[in-house]
Amino acid sequence: MRPDLSQASATIEGMPRWDEGPLVGRADELARLLAHVDRAVEGRPSAVLVAGDAGVGKTRLLDELARRSAERGVRVLTGHCVDLGDVGLPYLPFVDLLRPVAADPELSAVLADHPVLAGLLTGRPGAPVPGPPEDDPDRGSPLGRGALRPPAEDGRLQLFEAVAALLTQVAADRPLLVVLEDLHWADRSSRDLLRYLLARLLARLVDEPITVVVTYRADDLHRRHPLRPLLAELVRLPGVERLTLEPLPDADVDTLVRGLAADSGGLAEGTVEDVVARAEGNAFYAEELLAAGLAGEALPMGLTDVLLARVEQLSPAAQQVLRVAAVAGRQVRHELVSAVSPQSPEETERALGEAVHHHLLVVSDAGRYRFRHALLREAVLADLLPGERVRLHAEVAAHLSAHPGAGTAAERAHHARESNDLPGALSASLEAADAARRVGAPAEQLQHLEAALALWAAVPDAAERAGREQWELLLDTAAAARAGGELHRAVAMLRSAQQLLGPDGDPEARARVHYTLARGLTRIEETADALREGELALQLVPAQPPSVARTWAVATHARTLYALGRIAEGDAAADEALAAADALGLDGAWADTAISLARVQGAGDLPTVRARLHEARLRAERSGDADVETRVWFSLAIVAHEAGELEETLAQAGAGLDRARALGVEWSFYGAELRHLEVVARYATGDWDGSLAAADELARVPDMAAHVRADGLLVLVGRGDPAVRERLAWAQGLATRWDSHVLLMLATVSAEIELAAAAGDARTAADRARWADERLHALWGEDRPATVRLAASAVGAVADAAATARANGDREALAGWVAEGEALAELARAAARAHDAAVGELGVEAQAWCARLEAELGRLRGSASPEAWRQVVELFGYGHVYEQARSRFRLAEALLAADDRPGAAVELTAAHEVAVRLGAAPLRTAVEALARRGRLELPGLPRPAEVSAVLTPREVEVLALMAQGRTNRQIGAELFISEKTASVHVSNILAKFGASGRTEAVALAAARGLLS
């Protein structure tokens, strides 16, 4: 009869476990966690990120939290991440989390509302999707077999939303505590799902009685660990707290050790001190050291020795099942252990019971065995002989192959590789890649495809197993890399395919690689190389008769020619592509070319452009080409943005992102561009919280989506948030990529110029604008409209420096700054003229920046024009809330200089309202200071003090002369008083302002509006 393993003894030779006794040394941390649970009870969502080194007590703390929460009537669901090495197993912790829901009769009915979760919970996510259309250039065309198909429509978006909705329904009758353990082992898809859930619960302030607590090993997070950026982003969400479990103080470890040993007659004082010293605040280490000591073994010097000392106390049979379990994984089914173990089923059960009773294995709620701590499994693995490890992996792989429902393809691939079954590993890796594609997990798909490529040369019948040639697999892998936003990796794969085919390869195959590479190169700003690749593709395939390869080659060539401004040549290529695409029924190629034509030939005719793009979208959807379809959505969003229609921009970007998620290409090139437009459009409309949340939403941004996170600098700079320095340093650290990622460069340099201007560093602002213009000129040629904004911002900083030089009477400095500003302005004008000649009229925002430039030039020359600034305010009125408010501030300055105090008050009031609403502290400070200087009232601010209430009439006269730089002797002579009397008045003025010197007193008086 099989023993009841769930009722294992709680002692080791009479010693209670530390994680089953009273919680020691974590009262403060538990109180903080319970406060979040209490928020859930009150109907307010929140989350806690619990960090700590391995063995520091995270699980023990969460066990106590779960117990206390249950006492409060809170439902607890727990999911565990598993260390599977290089195996990508999407959504595993959420499967673990949701299985109790399926098993609970009271809750299982809820699953019926979410059929997309059925496949996830049964281990069969998604049904096979229909095959690709015959005209698809990258899949199933006459050039290749067995290529990748796009993910099913009910992909990531539906899955994510279903999980979120299910948790909301579960929490409807009782508050819910969701616990995710060991997040450092989570796969990328699980991290993305966690990010989605927290953003849905917290960033949008949904009122749900849910608390989410996740744990991770802080000591596992090396610099490039994929969890690190996710944590940095999640902690910025409202309601998220980071809780770090530091090592326990020695006094608490002492209490813990004495409590564990109390029932065993105590320990010698030297033993307690030794355990406390060696544990170094780690509760698990302390327990293991103590257990080894109590067992009569000499205390080992290292933790691994301690762990193995515990293992070696077991019988040989129990040690064997531990070795099997260690190889199989942290959680393993009884059937697998029994199948691989050399003992009889009865002996295996007894051995498992022994391991469970000695607390080396525990039985999970799902009925699986798992090691009580990951370090224990690691120690057992490390102790295996190489031959034994290979044999066990082989036996596990054989069992999984013989029983398809016992594990995933990813697990089979892992065990096959570790057992040197390279053919089996290749086949399983390809199967795992296809499974990852079906659930919309491009990162895991890429991982498995690269694993298959690494095995190719070692498998004689690799092509037969893969159902395609190696160069085709390279193209499929490049497509997966593009879908995940890894453009440089995709380009590298394509170059490898070129080398593999060589100069004598099949012409159509070579042409396919050339034009696919050309498409990738244009996206990393290597347009000249892209042109060359496109020309090579065209040389390999004749125009007649029309072919799939020729059609895509000429369509891609048209895009490249348009990007280089060679419009006439681009038109000729586009005409050929459209005609061939119609003849062959290639909807994808037709739509791709139609997008290019709409953007070039329809400039200025917005209704026509939109009509063409909507037709292209319908054809792209019909083609099944995710890349072309997301390009259409991006084009619809960008034309709205250029027209100043920000709400339409957000609508198109949102719909495009939803579609990209459904297709599993959220962070492909155009998926990232859609998110970029969402961030900047929210910033412009004044939704700064939404803009920053969108910029920070991704757990780990791919290299070519880094500009999305850098876009968050716009909000941080505008708010004067100290966090801007950290993010700016991160973006500057990517400077080696700027030439291939211009939007990242522009976001970074814009922030540098704004910060320099705020610090009064006009030289840096001007230098950075010049540098950026030079790089844009080198990369884009004459047509570089981005220079207009950069130059206008820099001229504003230069105008400030000129005003200071003018006030100080420094004619030489003034002349230098005026010349600098005029030169920067000419750069901007040249860029605007070039764009007008090459493309047509500038967009609405660029026109506003041109007006800003001219208005700033008026300030630079000492003649700020209210009319010029009023025009800037009107032009930014298309919807750019912040820039309009900043322009109102400058208009108010000009109106005050023209003695139009009522008009200035109106503009300052409007600017102040926006600054307060956005949390734009620097602008608010400037507005309030100008109001004080101009003696203007602002709603909600104290009425400016009258000068007579602060200074005597004589002190007013003395202050005015101080502001002109007069000495005490000069002041006395001008006011017909003695130098000593003048000195007394100056001292009184300094005392009233609390100033340390004359300059500070004058500045304070000016800021308070007490100096005319």
UniProtKB/TrEMBL annotation:
GO MF, one example: ATP binding
Species annotation: Modestobacter italicus (strain DSM 44449 / CECT 9708 / BC 501)
Domain HTH luxR-type per the UniProt entry, residue ranges: 944-1009
Full protein name: Transcriptional regulator, LuxR family
One GO-annotated biological process of the protein: regulation of DNA-templated transcription
Pfam families per UniProt: AAA_16, GerE
InterPro entries (UniProt xref): AAA_16, P-loop_NTPase, Sig_transdc_resp-reg_C-effctor, TPR-like_helical_dom_sf, Tscrpt_reg_LuxR_C, WH-like_DNA-bd_sf
Positions of the UniProt region annotated as Disordered: 122-148
Record's keyword annotation contains ATP-binding: yes
Entry keyword Ribonucleoprotein: no
PANTHER family associated with the record: TESTICULAR SOLUBLE ADENYLYL CYCLASE, TRANSCRIPTIONAL ACTIVATOR DOMAIN
Keywords, alphabetical: ATP-binding, Nucleotide-binding
Top-level taxon of the source organism: Bacteria
Gene Ontology cellular component terms for the protein in this record: cytoplasm
